[in-house]
């Protein structure tokens, strides 16, 4: 090294990404145990696809391949893509999702650190728009054997209306749209557990555990998870109190769908998110607001992905308008000691 | 009494590596045979040399006078003979040479007669001049001329005098050892500074990883019966930055570009206070300082080193290991890589680190920024370092300045924590350099444009003046001719040549030009020996004879035409 500082903390992109992968493991384990091991197969498929695509794109872009593949960022993207897809999507859908995330969203925009949008969320949105039926088949807890799951993933007959149920969010939406049922009545259905979707609520707990680990390791800050959970809980509480027959409880909203995965792993993506403390709060809070609106009034049962993408667009503005004051320019700086 | 301390944002906690160099007391480094004392050893202007080669000097004799308001004197660090005043390699990363006084020591180390003043009864301006002439500068590393800081703020008072003994950089222990061993002198210097600043309170801030120094300073304060408070501050780099320490001790944030005295605070390094004590109580100018030698050496330690001692001679005292690649002046966070091993120790040299690949490993490859904001969390100035990085990379210097690039103190915290191993500070140095260069260019261009515009204006003015002059002259001539015309009118009425006064004017001009040409032509034969001139004259006569013979043959108008062509042009402005 020619110039100071001559010493560095023992940190690296690889370490950061490795810790994120580690933090995802509780949720994945819960997923494999409660829903079935199909998710592991899809994780393997997406990881291989993403790493292969990453290496190919780096090669085409004439960048050093080994260093960039070694930073594990492609693996993180692959895992997040898989975890927000239904665990029994056919293999080619997973491949498509991983390719969209790595090739289109990441490398066409300039590679690691340059993408304005969250790769996993673009993958999710593009696939749910292109293949709405396949992307809506969420198996209920413990009802599909590994063989069935494997057959479905590897392209077996997809006559599965009988075996896959609606997700909790989906069931609630359909139930409420029919106009005859109240929230309570819908929640009596078999898709629901104590908190949210049956089985899925414990996967959410796994994600929370991983998220707390990331907070303790200071990989993420408290701003985004708190703002996301706070706004989602706040607005759903408000409307739930106003009309419990039409609006689900905050606990239901937090434990359903991808809320906890989003709060700790999606919203907190540093590359495509806001960077200032106030910007982070607005960014994550905005996502929660959009997600709640779409869940209740939109055309899709889950709205987090769209919320993330819409807020991704606002990041440059948020960052610009929320620059924190620098040393000596705080309002109370001058007379601080007086 | 427990003082309420304040926090500054960010900061890092690198391994301190301080214990190895504090095991033995401060030792005196031997007098080197040859000392190189650079003239430029303070912030501001370099000193002006007062000695000539061959001159004998005594230790402490002034060899350079302060070269302006922001400058300080330099002194002979030992007795000996001035060998040269010439550019020499100085401890600067650029490797450029700067003027220095080179002294060959006589080994006697004989002091010059000390000068004394009583600062209590001397007018403050004279005390400041005395301190300037004693060469006292900030010894924390910034070498700001101390006399310029020895004046009270507005209202003739200063609320708080801060003594900086934080010493937050890893490896460096020179202030620690000075406080342990010479606390009395520091307290005495602090009392002088308090008097000069008319300070109400004195706070001595020391990082809490130096319990021995804190104890020694407390004892010295008590022994002197002074009202000064020794405050242990949390160990967190860069707590020793003047503005950071002022923030921690008083809660006051001094913005970039403003002076702390305007906020009622002034801050001095403990080593500086000791030098003030030596100058005003003992009459000894600044000729040596405490230097920590550490890093890749067998026996790290602290030495009292004469200014001008070559660093390699100093490092040799500590047993440098063979794989030392280069020397660093200062610490690992903000230190400067030396261009050679034999550069001299200067007033700014608080530490010399021997660097090898194990201690300071080569930088890992730079990876893309992932906007993790670790740097923003670590920045003590609360900048957004990654934004400055993006702006620097894209050479968007305007935006970089808008995001407070120049508030950056280059402490290195951001680069220290960056998981992508981006040498962030280098990007800021690059941007600052580019902005300064552009400002210089712009200033030069502005000056050139002004000069050009003035030149155009001057030319226009001169043209107008000349035209007016010519017109006046022409009118005069015309008047004269008219006069002559009326006088000779009857005789010359038919003469065709005199008809037109304009033709007369041209004829006159032609005659003048011819005369001028004749005058100019022989110039290249002016400075010759009489003999040669005689020869040339001979040749000329021969040629004239030939020309005279040739004239009848040629047509007469030819030479006239040539003459007309030779008419000197209007002299170009």
Describe the structure in your own words.
The complex is a heterodimer of chains A (338) and B (573). Chain A has 338 residues and is an all-alpha fold. Chain A is 61% helix and 0% strand. Chain A folds into two domains: 11-165, no CATH class; 173-321, no CATH class. Chain A has 15 helices and no strands. In chain A, helix 5 (91-107) crosses helix 6 (119-130), helix 6 runs antiparallel to helix 15 and helix 10 (200-216) packs parallel to helix 13 (259-266). Chain B has 573 residues and is α/β, with parallel strands linked by helices. Among the domains of chain B are: 19-30 and 116-355, Rossmann fold; 369-482 and 499-505, Orthogonal Bundle (Fumarate Reductase Iron-sulfur Protein, Chain B, domain 2), CATH 1.10.1060. Chain B has 15 helices and 17 strands. Chain B has helices spanning 124-133, 174-181, 183-197, 211-224, 242-250, 270-281, 311-316, 374-378, 385-393, 397-402, 413-417, 424-492, 501-520, 530-550, 557-565; strands spanning 27-28, 34-38, 48-49, 56-57, 62-65, 74-75, 80-89, 97-105, 158-165, 199-207, 228-233, 265-269, 288-295, 301-306, 326-329, 336-337, 351-355. In chain B, strands 1-14-13-17-15-16 form a six-stranded mixed sheet. The longest helix of chain B is centred in the C-terminal third of the chain and has 69 residues, at 424-492. Mean pLDDT of chain B is 89; it is low at 553-573. The chains are: A mainly alpha (338), B alpha/beta (573). The interface between A and B is large, with 44 and 69 residues.
């Amino acid at each position: 090294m020619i110039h100071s500082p001559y010493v560095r903390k023992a940190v690296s992109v690889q370490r950061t990404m490795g810790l994120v992968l580690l933090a995802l493991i509780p949720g994945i384990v819960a997923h494999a145990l409660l829903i079935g091991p199909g998710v592991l197969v899809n994780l393997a498929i997406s990881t291989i696809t993403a790493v292969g695509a990453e290496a190919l794109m780096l090669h085409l872009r004439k960048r050093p391949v080994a260093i960039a593949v070694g930073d594990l960022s492609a693996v993180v993207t692959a895992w997040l893509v898989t975890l927000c897809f239904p665990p029994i999507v056919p293999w080619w859908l997973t491949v498509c999702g991983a390719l969209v995330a790595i090739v289109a969203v990441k490398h066409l925009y300039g590679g690691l650190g340059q993408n304005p949008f969250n790769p996993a969320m673009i993958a999710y949105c593009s696939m749910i728009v292109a293949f709405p039926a396949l992307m809506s088949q969420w198996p209920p807890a413990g009802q599909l054997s590994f063989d069935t799951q494997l057959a479905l993933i590897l392209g077996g007959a997809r006559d599965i209306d009988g075996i896959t149920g609606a997700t909790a969010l989906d069931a609630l939406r359909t139930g409420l749209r029919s106009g005859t049922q109240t929230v309570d009545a819908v929640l009596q259905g078999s898709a629901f557990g104590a908190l949210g979707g049956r089985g899925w609520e414990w996967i959410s707990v796994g994600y929370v555990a991983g998220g707390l680990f990331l907070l303790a390791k200071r990989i993420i800050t408290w701003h985004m998870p708190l703002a996301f959970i706070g706004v989602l809980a706040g607005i759903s509480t408000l409307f739930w109190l106003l009309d419990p027959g039409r609006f689900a409880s905050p606990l239901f909203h937090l434990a359903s769908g991808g809320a906890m995965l989003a709060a700790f792993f999606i919203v907190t993506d540093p590359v495509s998110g806001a960077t200032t403390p106030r910007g982070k709060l607005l960014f994550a809070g905005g996502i929660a607001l959009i997600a709640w609106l779409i869940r209740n009034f939109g055309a899709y049962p889950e709205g987090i992905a769209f919320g993330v993408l819409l807020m991704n667009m606002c990041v440059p503005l948020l960052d610009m308008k929320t620059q924190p004051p620098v040393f000596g320019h705080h309002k109370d700086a001058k007379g601080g000691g007086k | 009494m427990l003082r309420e301390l304040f926090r500054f944002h960010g900061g890092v906690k690198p391994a301190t590596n301080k214990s190895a160099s504090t095991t033995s007391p401060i030792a005196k480094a031997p007098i080197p045979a040859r000392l190189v004392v650079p003239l430029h050893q303070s912030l501001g202007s370099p000193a002006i040399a007062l000695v000539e080669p061959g001159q004998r000097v005594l230790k402490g004799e002034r060899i350079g006078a302060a070269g302006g308001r922001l400058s300080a004197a330099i002194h002979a660090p030992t007795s000996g003979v001035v060998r040269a005043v010439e550019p020499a390699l100085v401890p600067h990363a650029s490797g450029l040479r700067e003027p220095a006084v080179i002294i060959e020591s006589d080994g006697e180390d004989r002091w010059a007669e000390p000068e004394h003043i009583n600062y209590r009864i001397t007018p403050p301006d004279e005390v400041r001049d005395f301190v300037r002439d004693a060469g006292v500068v900030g010894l924390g590393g910034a070498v700001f001329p101390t006399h310029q800081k020895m004046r009270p703020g507005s209202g003739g008072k200063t609320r708080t005098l801060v003594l900086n003994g934080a010493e937050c950089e890893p490896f460096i222990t020179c202030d620690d050892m000075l406080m342990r061993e010479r606390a009395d002198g520091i307290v005495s210097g602090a009392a002088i500074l308090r008097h000069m600043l008319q300070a109400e309170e004195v706070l001595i801030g020391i990082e809490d990883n130096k319990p021995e120094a804190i104890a020694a300073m407390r004892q010295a304060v008590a022994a002197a019966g002074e009202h000064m408070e020794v405050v242990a501050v949390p160990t967190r780099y860069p707590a020793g930055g003047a503005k950071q320490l002022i923030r921690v001790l008083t809660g006051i944030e001094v913005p970039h570009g403003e002076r702390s005295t305007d906020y009622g605070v002034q801050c001095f390094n403990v080593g500086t206070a000791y030098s003030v004590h030596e100058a005003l109580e003992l009459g000894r100018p600044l000729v040596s300082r405490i230097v920590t030698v550490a890093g890749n050496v067998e026996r790290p330690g602290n030495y009292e080193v004469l200014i001008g001692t070559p660093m390699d001679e100093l490092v040799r005292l500590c047993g440098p290991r063979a794989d030392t690649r280069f020397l660093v002046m200062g610490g690992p966070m903000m230190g400067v890589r030396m261009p050679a091993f034999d550069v001299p120790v200067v007033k700014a040299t608080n530490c010399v680190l021997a660097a090898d690949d194990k201690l300071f490993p080569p930088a890992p490859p730079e990876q893309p920024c992932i906007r993790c904001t670790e740097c923003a969390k670590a920045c003590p100035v609360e900048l957004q370092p990654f934004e400055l990085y993006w702006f620097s990379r894209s050479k968007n210097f305007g935006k970089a300045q808008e995001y407070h690039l120049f508030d950056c103190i280059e402490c290195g915290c951001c680069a220290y924590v960056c998981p992508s191993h981006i040498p962030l500070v280098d990007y800021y140095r690059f941007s600052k350099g580019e902005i300064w260069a552009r400002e210089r260019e712009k200033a030069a261009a502005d000056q050139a444009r002004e000069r050009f515009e003035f030149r155009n204006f001057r030319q226009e003015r001169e043209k107008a003046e000349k035209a007016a002059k010519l017109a006046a002259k022409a009118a005069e001539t015309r008047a004269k001719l008219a006069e002559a015309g009326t006088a000779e009118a009857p005789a010359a009425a038919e003469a065709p040549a005199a008809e037109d006064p304009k033709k007369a004017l041209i004829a006159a001009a032609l005659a003048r030009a011819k005369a001028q040409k004749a005058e100019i032509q022989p110039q290249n034969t002016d400075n010759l020996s009489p003999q040669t001139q005689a020869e040339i004259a001979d040749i000329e006569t021969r040629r004239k004879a030939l020309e005279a013979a040739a004239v009848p043959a040629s047509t007469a108008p030819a030479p006239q035409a040539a003459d007309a062509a030779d008419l000197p042009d209007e002299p170009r402005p």
